[in-house]
Batch of 2 targets.
Target 1
Amino acid sequence: DTGVSQDPRHKITKRGQNVTFRCDPISEHNRLYWYRQTLGQGPEFLTYFQNEAQLEKSRLLSDRFSAERPKGSFSTLEIQRTEQGDSAMYLCASSPAPQGTDTQYFGPGTRLTVL
Amino acid sequence: AQRVTQPEKLLSVFKGAPVELKCNYSYSGSPELFWYVQYSRQRLQLLLRHISRESIKGFTADLNKGETSFHLKKPFAQEEDSAMYYCALFPAMNYGGSQGNLIFGKGTKLSVKP
């Protein structure tokens, strides 16, 4: 399967713990996006990268959240000191070219449950 | 503010009936609009985009700037169309360097009964 992959698919953690998610985009896709989706809502934008540069961050991305894409390939999203409100599906997507209107291809998501 | 509104959380129709999933947007510029679909246990995927003006799986959507709408239509629904449908807006202020985020509506669950 050459689509976007995410790991882990599910994560259960206790409040206050740190968690890290990984996203592998489609090979040679320049843009990589992170979204968060809670029950009954559509995906909400968190941040995106063009190659290794993080170009935009949503106000939803508090200082407990950090994302990296060190070599312009895979990306990680870390949440420090998790809170119950962080429980959500975290989606990664990638697109092939610098123009943002290109189709975004989504991964299966990582479902985070904070107890 | 940029916003996408899908007024129906759930739409239930019988097989063979016409379907219209409503989408309204709020954006002052010229938007790029998309419909994404998520079938059960599958990932979110693009169904169609207004710029392509194409029909995918029998679905069409026309951008109406006067009514700020981008409703998704299909003349004869099939059971396999049952899924979650999301309308999304890309605030295309300029190409090659514009902001990268899609703005999604809350989604409409389409249920097609046999």
Note: The mean pLDDT of chain A is 92.
Target 2
Amino acid sequence: SQTIHQWPATLVQPVGSPLSLECTVEGTSNPNLYWYRQAAGRGLQLLFYSVGIGQISSEVPQNLSASRPQDRQFILSSKKLLLSDSGFYLCAWTRPGQGATYEQYFGPGTRLTVT
Amino acid sequence: AQKITQTQPGMFVQEKEAVTLDCTYDTSDQSYGLFWYKQPSSGEMIFLIYQGSYDEQNATEGRYSLNFQKARKSANLVISASQLGDSAMYFCAMRVTLGGAQKLVFGQGTRLTINP
């Protein structure tokens, strides 16, 4: 069966510090991978998606970047955090060509607080 | 532009009653998909139900059903016989195609509270 992991689960970082959030998927090959951010009490906003190793597409201009160094690993980074980067970060995956639904499976999330 | 609208920020329902959560969508695509996810306080996103734009019958999954009215561009979630464990945020989402990948556009969510 497939499993998606995210770490850390919770993070408190000062403004201006770097960030690295990691997401890994087990039990599948060549997944499409996604990073979402959820502000408190709001819906999810897509930040980045990737259809393969080294292939990253950005949805919105921002202070963050993403990388996919391995097939099942997706990393969200920042060189200098802003207060507005606080939120709940969710990683998700879909199987390419899985059929009509393209259901996305979500990880447990990382709650980031920038102080 | 593709957009999902959920007009109910919060809903309060008595246990065992049925509840309808509203969702309207806007798209010019002929082929699309509509999802409902549940997000409990733990934060995980739990897939509930899916409706394809070409599906003629409304989707059902246990106590969940999707009232799909294509002409009105609405995809309301109906939960029958609500339970205390149904208290959570509920998000409607639409699948759109983006650069070779499938993207989900989410609504702002509805917070459902089930009262005993």
Note: Residues 39 and 87 of chain A are 5 Å apart (CA to CA).
